C-alpha cells in the first residue's frame, strides 16, 4: 500500500513520507521490480517539499553494494533533473555500482565526462574503483583506456592502483606484466607485506612457483625484522600502519603548494553519506563548482542499455609510462633460486580476492591506514583462531629449510606479536605450497612446510592439506598417512579437502576399497569434489570394474554431487565396450552399447552437460569397436551439424582426433569409399590431417593394394612437415605383400634403413605374418635373427607366427624350442635380467598345479601382458617335455639361426 500526496504536508509528515518512499524503493529493488522502483522515484520527486541530496544518497549507496547499475544511472539522471548537488560521494557510489555490475563502457564514459569538466575532475579513488571493475571482469581493453586517461589527466598512482593492476595481470596469467607492475611499484614504494601478498597471488595464478618463492622469502625477511606491522581497520580489513601517499606524475609550478597539500598525510574525512574518503582523494578534485552550480551529465537511455561483454582475452595490459625493460628481480634471495619443474597439470584456484571495492578502497577510518580486503575469511576470525601447539610433521630426510633468515637484526617469528602479519604470511605460504603442488614441484612444497616449522609459523589446516597433496602425489599415500596422523595429533579436524586428497591417492594406488571409504567420510559433498569421484571412476576403468563404477555413480547421485563432462567421458569409456578384449561385436552387444549410450546421454541432459570433443571421441570409439558403422556416421553428422550451427561460446564437437577415430573404424570395417568421403569432408571443414590421419588413409589404400596412392599420400605427408616412421613403411609392406611380393617387402625394409628410420616389432610382424601362411621358413629365420641383432624384442604375435610356421611344416620340436627362445627374449634381451627372471618365475612355470594359471592372469591384469604371455608359453613348453632353459643364446635353434645369418651376410 503506497501513500498519496496531500495538498499540504509539512514537518514530520513530509519526512515520514520520504522515508517511507525510500524504503519502498529499496524493497522494489530487492524484489527485482525495477519498473516499480523507477515509478516510486518519480513519485518521490513530486513531493511538495524541498528534496535534498541526502534523501537520495542512501539509495545510491545501496546501488553501489547490490549492485544496481541501471537504477544508479536512473538516479543520476533524476538528480540532474532536480538540479541537486550530487558531490563526489554520489559519483563514487555510481562508479561502484557500474563497475560491480559490469557496465564498464558506461563507467568509462562517466570517467571521461567527469574529466572534461574542470569542477568535477575524478579523483584517484574513482580510477582505482574502475580498475577494480576491469579486474573483476577481466577486461584488459578498458584497463588500458583507463591508464591512458590517467596519463592524459596527469593523475598519479597510489599503491592501491598498483594492487589493482597486479591483480588484473595475475588474472590474465601474464607473468611479464606482473613483473612489470612490480618494477613500477618499487620505483615509488618500498616492498611491504600487503603488496607482496598481491604479488605472490598473481605469480601463483601464472604458476610461476620460482618467482613466488622469491617473493615469499622477501616477505619472511620483512616480517622477521619486525617491519611488517599490520592493523585492523573498522571494517575488519588488514591495513598498513602508514599512510598511502599517491605519487603525482607531474607537478605544475603554479600549483606546487596545492600538490604539497595533497601529499600531506592528513586525517581521513567522512562525508554526510557515510562514505569514507581519504584526504588525498578529496583534495585531488573539488567537491562542487565554485559558483554552486551543479554539473549536468549527458542524457542516455539507461534502463534499456544492455550489459556488454567487456572481456578481450587477446589483449595485453599496456601500463602507461612503464617502459619495457628486462626484468631483474628486486627480491633478495638468500638461498639461491630453486629449479622448478614445469607442468601443464590442471591449476589450483589460489585467488584471494581483494573483495568488494567501494569508495573505501583508498581510505579507511581515522587511523591513516591503507586497506586491503581478504575475502577468504574475516580478519577477526583468523585472529581468534586457536592453533594447537606441537612439532609439525616432516619427512625423515629432515631437509634443511630452503631459506635461512638473516641472523643479524632479525627476530624469530615466535617473538612477533603482530598476529595479522603472521596470518598474511601463513596465507602466502599456503598459496606457494598449492602452486608447487599444481606444478608437481613436490620438493619445493616440502621445503616450504619445513621452513614454516623452523620459523615457528604454525601451519593451519589449509597448510596441512596442501602439504598432504605434495606428499601423496609425490611419494605415495603411505607417506601421506603420516601427515594425516600428525594432523590428528594436533586436533585438526579433517575436512572434505583432506578426504578428497586421500581418495585420489588411494585411487591412483588402485586401493579402491579405501578410496570408497574416504568418499563416504566426506560431509556435505560439494561440486568441487567431483574430481575425487572421477579419480575413482578412472581407477575402475583401469582395473576393469564396471560394477564398482556403478556404486560410485550411485554415491554421487545420493550425495547430490553434480557430474561434469569428465565424469561422462569415463562412463562412456567404462560402459561403451560390452565384449571382452580381443572379441568382436555381435548384434546383442551392439544393442547393449546403444542402450547404455542412450542412458548416459539422458543423464547428461538432466544435468545440463553437453558433449565435448573428448566425450564425442570416446563415444565414437565405442561404436567403432562394435563395428556399428551406421550409428558411427549418424553421430559424426550430428557433430558436423553442431559445428556449422554453433555460436562462439559453444565448444566444437569436431576435431582431427574425432575424424581419425571415424576413419580408423571405417578402415577396420573395410569401408574404403566411405572413408575417402569422410577424409575429403574433414579437409572441407578446415581440419588439417596429422600423421595419424595419413597413416590411416595409407592403410585404406592397402584394402585395394593401391601402392601408387599410398606413395602419393607419403609425398603429401612430407610436404606438410611430417616425417616417416616404421609404421609408414609397414603399411607399404602390407600393400606389396598382398601379392606375396616378399622381395619388394625386403627392399622396403632396406629403404627404411637407408632413410634412417628405426624399425620396430610391427615392421617384422608385417612380413612374418604372410611368410608364416606361405611356409617361408627362410624369410622367418632371417628376420628372427635380424631382430635379435637389432635388439628388438618380439611380442606375442611374433611368437605365434614363428611357432605356427614350424608347426604347420611338421617340425613340432623346433616349434616348441623356438617358442621358448622367443618367450624369454620377449621378457628381456639382457642375459642378467633373464637369469633374474629365472629365479623369480621358474618355480611358477614348472608348477603342475592347475591354479597356477590364475597367477598368470593376475600378472596380465596388472598391465604386464608380455610377461604373462611369456610365462604362459614357457609353461606350455615345459608341459610338452621341452627342457626348461632361460638362456636363449644357448639353444641349438638360436645357434643355427646365427650361423645361417653370418653365411648370408658374408
Helices, by number, come to: 41
What form results from the Cα inertia axes? elongated
> What's the helical proportion of residues?
55-70%
Q: What is the rounded Rg?
A: 37 Å
What structural class do the secondary elements suggest?
mainly alpha
Oligomeric status: single chain
* Strand arrangement, major sheet: 1-2-5
Strand content: under 5%
Mean pLDDT: 75
Show unreliable segments: 1-10, 250-315, 319-411
Q: Can you count the beta strands? A: 5
Distance between the termini: 111 Å
Characterize the main sheet: 3 strands, antiparallel
Describe this structure in words.
- The chain is 60% helix and 1% strand.
- With 906 residues, it is mostly helical.
- Helix 7 runs parallel beside helix 9 and helix 20 runs parallel beside helix 22.
- The termini are far apart.
Amino acid at each position: 500500500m503506497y501513500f498519496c500526496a496531500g495538498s499540504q504536508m509539512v514537518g514530520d509528515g513530509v519526512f515520514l513520507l520520504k522515508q517511507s518512499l525510500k524504503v519502498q524503493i529499496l524493497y522494489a529493488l530487492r524484489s527485482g521490480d525495477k519498473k516499480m522502483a523507477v515509478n516510486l522515484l518519480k513519485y518521490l520527486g513530486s513531493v511538495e517539499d524541498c528534496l535534498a541530496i541526502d534523501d537520495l544518497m542512501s539509495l545510491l549507496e545501496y546501488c553501489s553494494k547490490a549492485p544496481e547499475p541501471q537504477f544508479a544511472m536512473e538516479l543520476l539522471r533524476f538528480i540532474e533533473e532536480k538540479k541537486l548537488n550530487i558531490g563526489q560521494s554520489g559519483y563514487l557510489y555510481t562508479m561502484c555500482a557500474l563497475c560491480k555490475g559490469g557496465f564498464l563502457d558506461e563507467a568509462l564514459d562517466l570517467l571521461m565526462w567527469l574529466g572534461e569538466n574542470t569542477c568535477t575532475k575524478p579523483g584517484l579513488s574513482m580510477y582505482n574503483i574502475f580498475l577494480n571493475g576491469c579486474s573483476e571482469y577481466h577486461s584488459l581493453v578498458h584497463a588500458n583506456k583507463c591508464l591512458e586517461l590517467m596519463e592524459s589527466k596527469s593523475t598519479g598512482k597510489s599503491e592501491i592502483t598498483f594492487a589493482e593492476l597486479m591483480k588484473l595481470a595475475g588474472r590474465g596469467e601474464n607473468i611479464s606484466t606482473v613483473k612489470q607492475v612490480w618494477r613500477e611499484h618499487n620505483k615509488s614504494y618500498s616492498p611491504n607485506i600487503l603488496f607482496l601478498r598481491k604479488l605472490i597471488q598473481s605469480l601463483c595464478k601464472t604458476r610461476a612457483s620460482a618467482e613466488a618463492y622469491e617473493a615469499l622469502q622477501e616477505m619472511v625477511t620483512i616480517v622477521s625484522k619486525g617491519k611488517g606491522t599490520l592493523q585492523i581497520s573498522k571494517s575488519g580489513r588488514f591495513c598498513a600502519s602508514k599512510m598511502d601517499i599517491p605519487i603525482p606524475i607531474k607537478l605544475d609550478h603554479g600549483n606546487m603548494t596545492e600538490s604539497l597539500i595533497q601529499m600531506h598525510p592528513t586525517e581521513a574525512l567522512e562525508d554526510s553519506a557515510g562514505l569514507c574518503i581519504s584526504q588525498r582523494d578529496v583534495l585531488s578534485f573539488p567537491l562542487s563548482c565554485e559558483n554552486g552550480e551543479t554539473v549536468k551529465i549527458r542524457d542516455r537511455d539507461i534502463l534499456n542499455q544492455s550489459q556488454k561483454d567487456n572481456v578481450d582475452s587477446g589483449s595485453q595490459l599496456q601500463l602507461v609510462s612503464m617502459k619495457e625493460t628486462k626484468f631483474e628481480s628486486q627480491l633478495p634471495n638468500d638461498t639461491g633460486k630453486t629449479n622448478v619443474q614445469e607442468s601443464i597439470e590442471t591449476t589450483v584456484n589460489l585467488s584471494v580476492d581483494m573483495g568488494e571495492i567501494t569508495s573505501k578502497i583508498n581510505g579507511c577510518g581515522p587511523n591513516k591506514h591503507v586497506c586491503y580486503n581478504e575475502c577468504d575469511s574475516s580478519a577477526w576470525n583468523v585472529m581468534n583462531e586457536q592453533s594447537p601447539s606441537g612439532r609439525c610433521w616432516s619427512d625423515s630426510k629432515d631437509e634443511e629449510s630452503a631459506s635461512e633468515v638473516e641472523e643479524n637484526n632479525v627476530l624469530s617469528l615466535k617473538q612477533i606479536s603482530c598476529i595479522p602479519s603472521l596470518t598474511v604470511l601463513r596465507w602466502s605460504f599456503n598459496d606457494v605450497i598449492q602452486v608447487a603442488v599444481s606444478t608437481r614441484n613436490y620438493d619445493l612444497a616440502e621445503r616450504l612446510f619445513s621452513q614454516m616449522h623452523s620459523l615457528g609459523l604454525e601451519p593451519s589446516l589449509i597448510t596441512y592439506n596442501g602439504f598432504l597433496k605434495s606428499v601423496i602425489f609425490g611419494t605415495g599415500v603411505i607417506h601421506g598417512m603420516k601427515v594425516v596422523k600428525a594432523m590428528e595429533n594436533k586436533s585438526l579436524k579433517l575436512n572434505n579437502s583432506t578426504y578428497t586428497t586421500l581418495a585420489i591417492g588411494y585411487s591412483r594406488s588402485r586401493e579402491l576399497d579405501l578410496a570408497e571409504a574416504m568418499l563416504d567420510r566426506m560431509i556435505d559433498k560439494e561440486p568441487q569434489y567431483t574430481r575425487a569421484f572421477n579419480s575413482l571412476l578412472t581407477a575402475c576403468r583401469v582395473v576393469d570394474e564396471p560394477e564398482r563404477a556403478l556404486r560410485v555413480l550411485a554415491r554421487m547421485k545420493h550425495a547430490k554431487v553434480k557430474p561434469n563432462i569428465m565424469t561422462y567421458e569415463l562412463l562412456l569409456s567404462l560402459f561403451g565396450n560390452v565384449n571382452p578384449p580381443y572379441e568382436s561385436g555381435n548384434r546383442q552387444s551392439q544393442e547393449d552399447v546403444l542402450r547404455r549410450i542412450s542412458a548416459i546421454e539422458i543423464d547428461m541432459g538432466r544435468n545440463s552437460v553437453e558433449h565435448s570433443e573428448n566425450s564425442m571421441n570416446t563415444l565414437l570409439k565405442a561404436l567403432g569397436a562394435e563395428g556399428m558403422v551406421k550409428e558411427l556416421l549418424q553421430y559424426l553428422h550430428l557433430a558436423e551439424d553442431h559445428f556449422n550451427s554453433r555460436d562462439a561460446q559453444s565448444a566444437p564437437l569436431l576435431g582431427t582426433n574425432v575424424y581419425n577415430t571415424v576413419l580408423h573404424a571405417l578402415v577396420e570395417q573395410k569401408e574404403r569409399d566411405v572413408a575417402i568421403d569422410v577424409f575429403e569432408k574433414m579437409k572441407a571443414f578446415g581440419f588439417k590431417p596429422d600423421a595419424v590421419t595419413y597413416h590411416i588413409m595409407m592403410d585404406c589404400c592397402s584394402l585395394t593394394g593401391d601402392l601408387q596412392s599410398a606413395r602419393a599420400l607419403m609425398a603429401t605427408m612430407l610436404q606438410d612437415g611430417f616425417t616417416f616412421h616404421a609404421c609408414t613403411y609397414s603399411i607399404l609392406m602390407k600393400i606389396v605383400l598382398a601379392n606375396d611380393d616378399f622381395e619388394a617387402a625386403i627392399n622396403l625394409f632396406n629403404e627404411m634403413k637407408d632413410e634412417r628410420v628405426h624399425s620396430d616389432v610391427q615392421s617384422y610382424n608385417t612380413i612374418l605374418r604372410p611368410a608364416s601362411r606361405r611356409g617361408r621358413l627362410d624369410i622367418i629365420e632371417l628376420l628372427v635373427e635380424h631382430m635379435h641383432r637389432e635388439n628388438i624384442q618380439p611380442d606375442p604375435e611374433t611368437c605365434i607366427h614363428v611357432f605356427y610356421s614350424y608347426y604347420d611344416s611338421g617340425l613340432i620340436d623346433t616349434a616348441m624350442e623356438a617358442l621358448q627362445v622367443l618367450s624369454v627374449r620377449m621378457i628381456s634381451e639382457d642375459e642378467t635380467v633373464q637369469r633374474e627372471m629365472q629365479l623369480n618365475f621358474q618355480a611358477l612355470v614348472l608348477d603342475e598345479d592347475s591354479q597356477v594359471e590364475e597367477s598368470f592372469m593376475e600378472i596380465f591384469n596388472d598391465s604386464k601382458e608380455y610377461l604373462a604371455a611369456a610365462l604362459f608359453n614357457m609353461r606350455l613348453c615345459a608341459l610338452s617335455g621341452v627342457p626348461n632353459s632361460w638362456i636363449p643364446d644357448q639353444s641349438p635353434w638360436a645357434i643355427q639361426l646365427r650361423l645361417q645369418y653370418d653365411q648370408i651376410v658374408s
